[in-house]
Recover the amino acids of this structure.
């Protein structure tokens, strides 16, 4: 609550729009990385299809905006409706993925999620109602009560969503669900033999992960004001949402948070000072370095350092 109130005070006293745009990107990746970690970190099923769920949430949101124009009559209710709709459609896609791939493990599951991203792009490209290859333009509201610019309001909403995503991931980690997911990750066959509801937990993890990704995508149309399939359902989104938990640490909710904040800030600096290509290069170098030198991520290094101090 204090963090949210602090963010609200920032919007009332600070009006440099670039920083809100940069903060939006970082907050978006906090939600995406927490969503990825539920399936990829806690459960051990590496997902390369983040872009598909993100894109489904974005296009669902865009179609609701263009069809119903809720923002004109109820500006404060519009974003919650978009988040619910985007998250729900992404959850249904996750349910379908979980059902179809429930017997697939390891690299085969990862390949199927990557294929899902390409299939999603192909479908959007061939549906004229979604803009096809031409794309969709979204008109961002110019004004909203209590805020001088809509990006300030969008930033505040993303802060609230990021807090929810972190709290949700923390709850799962500390509950019996998290212990069950960890058992599935460590040894799925042994977990099933000891009575862990493996199938239900895998489907739940897939749906929970995809829901957060869809929610993150639902705000994206108002951020970019233009949706195009190749850049929306992008492999870059999948790479970033995978790299951030791995660098931060996948064994805890804090890892994706640390990784998203650190890499998000580094990317924004590289984007301004260098170029988008160099920002991806930086992410790639950091990812390879941490996989080789610190496979447990930043949080794992901190835990080892704290344990050595106690000894």
């Amino acid at each position: 609550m204090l963090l949210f109130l602090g963010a609200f005070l920032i919007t009332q006293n600070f009006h440099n729009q670039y920083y809100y745009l940069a903060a939006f990107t970082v907050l978006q990746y906090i939600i995406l990385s927490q969503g990825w970690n539920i399936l990829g970190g806690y459960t051990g099923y590496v997902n390369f299809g983040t872009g598909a769920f993100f894109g489904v949430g974005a296009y669902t949101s865009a179609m609701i905006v263009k069809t119903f124009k809720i923002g004109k009559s109820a500006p404060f209710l519009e974003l919650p409706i978009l988040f619910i709709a985007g998250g729900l459609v992404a959850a249904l896609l996750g349910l379908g993925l979980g059902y179809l791939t429930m017997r697939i493990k390891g690299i085969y599951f990862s390949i199927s999620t990557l294929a899902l991203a390409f299939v999603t792009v192909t479908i959007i490209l061939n549906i004229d109602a979604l803009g096809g290859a031409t794309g969709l333009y979204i008109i961002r509201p110019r004004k909203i009560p209590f805020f001088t610019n809509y990006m300030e309001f969008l930033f505040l909403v993303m802060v609230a969503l990021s807090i929810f995503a972190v709290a949700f991931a923390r709850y799962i980690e500390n509950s019996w669900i998290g212990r069950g997911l960890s058992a599935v990750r460590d040894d799925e066959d042994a977990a099933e033999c000891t009575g862990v509801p493996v199938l239900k937990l895998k489907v739940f993890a897939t749906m929970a992960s995809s829901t957060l990704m869809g929610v993150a995508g639902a705000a994206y149309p108002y951020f970019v004001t233009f949706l195009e399939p190749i850049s929306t359902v992008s492999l870059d989104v999948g790479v970033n949402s995978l790299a951030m938990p791995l660098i931060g640490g996948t064994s805890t909710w804090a890892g994706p948070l640390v990784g998203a904040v650190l890499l998000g800030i580094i990317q924004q600096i590289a984007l301004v000072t260098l170029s988008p290509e160099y920002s991806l290069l930086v992410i790639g170098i950091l990812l390879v370095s941490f996989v080789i030198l610190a496979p447990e991520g930043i949080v794992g290094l901190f835990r080892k350092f704290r344990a050595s101090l106690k000894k």
Q: What stands out?
A: Residues 33 and 241 are 5 Å apart (CA to CA). The longest helix spans residues 17-42. The two ends are 37 Å apart (CA to CA). The chain has a mean pLDDT of 85.
